[in-house]
Amino acid sequence: MPKPLPPSAQRVQDALDSAGLGLTVRELEQSTRTSAEAAEAVGCTVGQIVKSIIFRAKASDRVVLVLTSGANRVDEHKVAALLGEGLGKADADFVRERTGFVIGGVAPVGHREAPITFIDADLLSHDEIWAAAGTPNALFRLTPGDLQMLSQGRIADVKRA
Ligand code: 5CA
């Protein structure tokens, strides 16, 4: 019998199962808290790691999720312009309370509430990518097409030049 997943990773697996794409959460022995650690753990490039970065829409208090390549930094001004609203800081408490995930384990799916989601166009250049799966040592492999389907995100240029 495989070991049961922690609840937040199981929530991600349940969301993946509902989507019916045949994707599987993998819990690893080592930390996958950062993009570099995640890439090292699964043997891919940092650019193939999907970072799930949370912001708070200032006026509406909505949760904004930016799915960006591990090789990039998010340009908050570009995201704010796409959103048509200023962005506030999402601290660790905001992330945990609104997404149900701790920083370092925020997944693209299985959130407590549906966030407004943007996808870094650079992620589409890879055949295979890896995203966090609810804990700082759980990941799952997917395609950029899967990411679009799962997150319903808008593809955009969101990276810092
Ligand atoms: N598991 C890895 C690879 S998928 C991971 O989750 N990486 S990540 O980049 O998506 O998550 C870490 C991100 O959390 C950092 O890039 C940073 O934007 C954010 N973060 C780190 N510390 C804080 C903090 N104190 N408050 C708000 N956000 C933070």
Topology, pairings included?
Layout lengths: L6 H13 L5 E3 L7 H8 L6 E9 L5 E7 L6 H8 L3 E2 L3 H8 L16 E5 L8 E4 L5 E5 L1 H8 L2 E3 L5
Parallel strand pairs: 2-6, 3-5, 5-8
Antiparallel strand pairs: 1-7, 2-3, 2-4, 6-7
CATH top level is Alpha Beta
N/C terminus separation: 47 Å
What is the overall number of helices? 5
Instruction: Give the tally of β-strands.
Output: 8
Which hetero compounds are present in the coordinates? 5'-O-(N-(L-cysteinyl)-sulfamoyl)adenosine
Largest sheet: 8 strands, mixed
- Which architecture per CATH? Alpha-Beta Complex
- Overall form: globular
Order of helices and strands: HEHEEHEHEEEHE
CATH topology: YbaK protein
Oligomer: single chain
The tally of domains stands at 1
Proportion of β residues? 15-25%
Helical coverage, percent range: 25-40%
